[in-house]
Fold these 3 entries.
Entry 1:
Amino acid sequence: MENVWKKYDFSDEETLNEVCDDYRAFLSVSKIEREVVMNSIILADNMEFKNLDSYIEENKPLKPGDKVYVNNRGKSLALFVIGEEDITKGMNILGAHVDSPRLDLKANPIYEEDEFAYLDTHYYGGIKKYQWVTIPLALHGVVVKKDGEVIAVEIGEDDEDPVFGITDLLPHLGQEQMKKEASKVIEGEKLDLLIGSVPLQTDEKDEKDLVKKNVLEILNRKYRIEEDDFLSAEIEVVPAGNARDFGFDQSMIMGYGQDDKVCAYTSLRAFLDCPPCGRTISCILVDKEEIGSVGATGMHSSFYENALQEICNLLGHTENTAVSRCLSNSFMLSSDVNAAYDPLYSDVMDKRNASFFNQGVVFCKYTGSRGKSGSNDANAEFIAKLRRIMDDHNVHFQISELGKVDAGGGGTIAYILANRNVNVIDCGVGVLSMHAPWEITSKADIYEAYKCYLAFLQDA
Ligand code: MN
Ligand code: MN
């Protein structure tokens, strides 16, 4: 296949740069699921979307052209534009996840050891632990006070802010460490964040843990956070700093959490840019994919079907078959990233079935591991329909698997909607260094993903 950059003319590059510049800016300020949801709602508000709750409370009927969203606990979001066609004929759905691998603070995180103060963490999702030491880290999330007040935390992103980090052994004394296998070089309980070294000034001679107390004093003074408040907090430790253009030719983007914000952003943008079309369209931005799509804010939660039930009711479909008919007749792109071919690690790829940078958006018929275990195996008929749509809209695409058959594997949210009888296929952007603190994507593939999602919403 030909490198898609060769096929672009000036107008392609103009739109490509616009989409990618906006994506890079969005990525820099949307590092955790709550920030993605908040920033997505701002974009939707600008397009005059309304919270579905306002319709439910007033029992106000929905009609074609209405734009609504459902905010599930600030961590997942479902958006809908009602089409002219009856909703039981199905929807065109884009679904991406907005959580990314990271370190979470434990419930009792703060401690002092030999006059250093630390925050204890528990890693979230599949990480190579050794990648998280000696890089600048930031804290993002919320602290919820007993009275319900929510204090947003974002420390380490402004130039004025301090950053935090995890130390590693110097090579001079690392002889024994360097003999360990990579999964044990840095152990989970050693992923503790160094946060301070100055003791609190006090007249009490016997007082202990003064460095920790000094940090707590600062937390209270600057952010009104007390030690007990960590019990009801969700604070995520993520790489500090902005997403950046990558390479001399600036053809790539490096940023934290591109799995799966690269598909979340392009899906949302295509959804918001989509001109009115016959079918109802929907965009799902969902939490907890990296740990199995569990919990109230993960794709296994009934929140999406509950929302759909409300929408069907407000459209006058009170029969109890409405939701199941709608889902059975729906098409969905589970928009998630794929492992791009890396010449430095070619041994884990089947080159004839790998995805490549600059070859366009990636369709993945099945994920899973070993004998396709845990996969959604998309129907050939559905793939044929998508091939036609992509060709009609001049979208460059490739079809791949995630690595060699016995090399490992992975999953997405695809099978969950497929279990509800939706026609689903995985479709997203290839990533280098996936799940590393800084992941790399190709701008051409980001642009093709956006074009693909737009074409799918209009024509599926
Ligand atoms: Mn993913
Ligand atoms: Mn992932």
Note: Residues 10-28 form the longest helix (19 residues).
Entry 2:
Amino acid sequence: MSIVRLFTTITVLVGSLSMPLMAAELNIYSARKEALIKPILNEFSQETGIKVNLITGKADGLITRMRSEKMLSPADLLLTTDVGRLVRAKSFGLTQSIELSNLSNLYIHDPNGHWVALTKRTRPIIVNPEKVAADAILTYEDLTKAEFKGRICVRSSNNVYNQSLVAAMLMQQGEEKTLEWAKGLVANFARPPKGGDRDQIQAVAAGICDIAIINTYYLAAMLNSEGDSARAAQKVQVVWPNQDDRGTHINISGVAIAKYAKNITEAQRLIAFMLRPSSQKWYSEVNQEYPVVPGIEWSKTLKDMGEFKAESVDLEQVGHLNPKALKIMDKAGWL
Ligand code: FE
């Protein structure tokens, strides 16, 4: 009897000692700010018992890090915004094909499963409604009109959101028209590009310019803030361009499984978790991004900005056209 008890005690001891080594883990390299991702990762850990180790940084920095770490990289997942970056990671050989059979309801992903979209974001135009008539701008092309000379603010061409905007136009309108557009846009700049999207919203509100191009989640976050930032956001109005033709530019945030991932099952579980309705709703409420899964309710702020027709392009191709887009911006003098 006592031998059995001793044996049981030893088994329990060995079991508890080996537990920490056996615990499932997941290493994430995230270009998304910790505050914008941590709550949902905590929920995932609580539910699954999988410990998540999060390393946050700038997307290009994380990609460079993975390239230099090579097969020693601890990263299981790369979480980042913009298809341009996901395609870049894939083209550097930093990703691997994800088994998509259990993710049948998702509809934006790399053709070979190298990345999966988690949210959608859109990049429309904003105006100061006191200075720009409601029907003066109906398309991105309208931004090149002579009447808007010295009235447009937009961030730099080294920003991937603008690169993807131009890449998507390039894909749909061809090189000649896109270069003409970029030149016309640059000719109408109110100032040399500087700052982020929030700064462009502030600039429109402050009267430095009357028009800007921005991602809506920045505007939504400002609307939900307090003080100067909220007041600035309230002064601008969203214009959904190209509603009668190709639609407003959209992009994604997404995730890729790292080429040398060791915790693939856990990585797949997290992706499935991120795509389930409650997580998609969380993204919309907290990050003010659009769900990728159909039928999920948008946040109130997004609903208030209105529904719109989004462009329908092969995002993988948009990613591939990134270097060409950059060349066009350069040629047009978009700093
Ligand atoms: Fe952003």
Note: The CA atoms of residues 90 and 148 lie 39 Å apart.
Entry 3:
Amino acid sequence: MRSLNALWAGRRDWFNPVGREQRIKDYIALANQLVWQRQASFLSAAVLAAFYFDPYATLACYAVVVLTEILDQLLARQSRAWDGKDPVAGRRILQRIARNTAVSATAISLFIISMAVQQTSGGHFTPLFFLFSAALFAAMHNSQMVGILLLRLSIYAAAFLFIALLDLVRYMPPLGSQVWLEFFTIIFVLYFIVDTSVHFYLNYQERIAHMRRIEEENERTKAAYEVKSQFLSTVSHELRTPLTSIKASLDLANNGVLGAVPDGLKPAIGIAAKNAQRLAALIDDLLDLQKIEAGEMVFNFEPVDVNTLVKEAVEATSGFATKLGIQVSTVPCAEACHVRGDHSRLIQVMNNLLSNAVKFSEDGGAVKVIVETDGARVRISVHDEGVGIPQDAQDRVFGKFSQVDSSDIRKVGGTGLGLNISKQIIERHDATIDYVSELGVGSTFFLEFDRLEGADTSRADDRPIAKVA
Ligand code: ADP
């Protein structure tokens, strides 16, 4: 009973335009996929029937079945062209599916009934088995549209009942005879087919519901992502802009440009300027991360002279290094070495590596940047003698917002985003970033690129690379 209820409840789908496109397309796709399997069964059944029963009746029924198959193929073409939007076209396709189904199921049933009628003695083993196979095939493969399935199964059920009643009417046998046994067996088989149909139908519905859930989840994720993007763009415009002017004003006050600052106020202004600087760095990192994740970070790839790149980066961090009493030296590559990259993004990566090396070094420590080639590769190493990184911290070092050291030992703050951003930038260059480190001894971060052969070296800066202290 539960089976029938479920099947009956599903009839609404037949009229419900929501998801109808999917069901029609699924139905036709599967029908197309199974076309040769169906042809093989029809043909073998027809050959058997033509040999043992009336060949003309068999041929006529077989011709009608083949005709409906051809119509189905034409319909498949029409449905592929349907974009699912025009409801009138959808209704027309459905009507044609229903018509083809009715004609094909009737032709198959008549073909099988004609066999049963020709059998004058014994049970109707062959026609009943043919009918059973046809019904099972429909139950297994037509569950996308319950209306169509019901239509086909009802026609087969009528054929089953016709065959079941045929001998009862013909011979009027007593209840204890084999003919009645066959009748009850047919009723049992009918129930089995209905049950199987419901089973396949519910499975299909579950699959559709699952797909809908995934689609909804996808929509929610997209919406959340949009909110995040909007939030970050608000952060960029509403926070970054005023912060820049706060920072500039504090710097002006700090440098005495706005007049003499009372001694008691100096430390407070200094702290405010430092924190404004940290906040600006955090916002910059957040915006970079957002750009990378949205695939919006633009890279202008061009030949980059690595020696010059390193020189510029070292110069840019020299003020910071001097303030912390760290000496930075460079060992350039002896020969010209170029890579393909985005100059300003590579400077950003180098600044990150250098500022990390400086800030995790002990007072008076040394940082060394080495550029070298190894066959077709160029390697930039940033070596420090600082606190080092514990083993197995790789994920945290390159993770988002993760800081390996405890914040009480660091001299300078950070966002925990720098290396994550650097890694993503380096990966966009098809290059690698990695490190080796030992706690209390120091760390070496290195970048490895494919070397660019025959690059235009006229852009290279030939001045010797200065030692920055
Ligand atoms: P942060 O802004 O905190 O420096 P990064 O992403 O640049 O963020 O670095 C992540 C973490 O990796 C740092 O917080 C630090 O714990 C560790 N780290 C990075 N570079 C070094 C280094 N040269 N020496 C020791 N630890 C480092």
Note: The pocket of adenosine-5'-diphosphate is lined by residues 352, 356-357, 360, 384, 386-387, 389, 397, 403-405, 414-420, 443 (CB under 6 Å).
